[in-house]
Amino acid sequence: MRGSKSSRTSRLDKPAASAFAARAADSADAKFDPEEVRPATRQETFPVALAAVLLSFIALLLSYSRGYLLLYGDAVAHLGIARRILDSRNPGLVQLGGVWLPLPHLLMLPFVQKVEWWQNGLAGAWPSLICYIASVAGIYRLARWLMIPRWALAATALYALNPNLLYLSTTAMTEPLFLMLLIWTTLLTVECVAAIRGSRPSAVSRRLLLLAIFILASVFTRYDGWILGAAVWCVVTFSLARNREVWRKVAPLLLFSPCS
Hints:
Layout: H1 2-29, H2 42-65, H3 73-84, H4 103-112, H5 115-120, H6 122-144, H7 149-160, H8 163-168, H9 175-197, H10 201-219, H11 224-241, H12 244-259
Helix pairs in contact: 2-6, 3-4, 4-6, 6-7, 6-9, 9-10, 9-11, 10-11, 10-12, 11-12
């Protein structure tokens, strides 16, 4: 009985074992090729993002220890606007507007509630550091569409080690946020055009939805984002016009994008 039971178990386990072996074979076939130009995988991007985290915290340590977080008058103004949304004589969204667009101040809102962070500038550093890390990962993924891994890493290092960018990523300035949005919008546009050429409507739909979100964020970050959104919409529309089959399936989403 015990022997027959174990034999049945082994027979039942054979399909699972064969499936596991097939997956292992597939992963072995999909080994990292240092001379191949192709979209980056998550496994490739993770070490790059990890290096960006390390660089960003080194930059923060240097800027904070030397009192550089509030050198820009604009950074102080951004922190003040974000703080006034909840802590002023007339609190509320009425504090937004004026010269600057509202998204950077809304992103700082959770951090400026801590008085020490608002006073020393750390409240503006946290969103900028997150945007810096995301932009470094995005620039690597974008470079991998055009270059082999070592050159993509070189291009990413050229961006990530820029001293001015490293400093700005520790302040309340809007540049790190907009650069992140610009890079990821460009990457999503490249992926969307590739999906259109490959006649993959579901992938196109996902990219269009993400593009709508990123363009909306860009429009509410800097005035440059208005031009970016118009340019992306023109590129995607032109690509779809050359593939009518995909156009018919995703046309409503394309109309939603400029409306955002």
